[in-house]
Amino acid sequence: MQNLNSCPMIHAMNIIGNKWSPIIIYAIGDRTIRFGQLAALIDNISRKVLAEQLKSLENEGVINRESFAEIPPRVEYSLTEKGVDLLPILNQICAWGSTMQEEVVCEAILK
């Protein structure tokens, strides 16, 4: 029997299996974005939680963080190759979520 601690699914979910990580990765997409822009794109996330999640994703090698020695300080985020590899998967999840959302709306109408 396989040791579940070495399971690739468990490893992947440890990196992106929380509430905000997939949303952050999806929001960054194929662009470079500043912290404030990212915070404005994602409703209902506190700046503290966003900063923590960005740090965690940076530590996992999913995003790049680049700081510029300017006044005021500027920090930009982009996806690493690992992060870019997740985009097709997240796009599929988004499409699936759209289908599920339509089903829920249709069921509510039919009742």
Task: State the main characteristics.
111 residues; alpha+beta; Arc Repressor Mutant, subunit A; three-stranded antiparallel β-sheet; 60% helix; globular
Describe the model.
By secondary structure, the chain is of the alpha+beta class. It has five helices and three strands. It has a single domain, classed as Arc Repressor Mutant, subunit A (Orthogonal Bundle). It has a three-stranded antiparallel beta sheet with strand order 1-3-2. A hairpin with a 5-residue loop joins strand 2 (63-68) and strand 3. 13% of the residues are buried.
Number of helices: 5
Calculate Rg over CA atoms: 17 Å
- The gross shape turns out to be globular
SSE sequence, one letter per element: HHEHHEEH
Task: Record the SSE blueprint.
Elements: H1 8-16, H2 21-28, E1 33-34, H3 35-41, H4 47-59, E2 63-68, E3 74-79, H5 81-110
Antiparallel strand pairs: 1-3, 2-3
What's a quick, concise take on this entry?
By secondary structure, this protein is of the alpha+beta class. The chain has helices at about 10-15, 20-30, 35-40, 45-60, 80-110; strands at about 35, 65-70, 75-80.
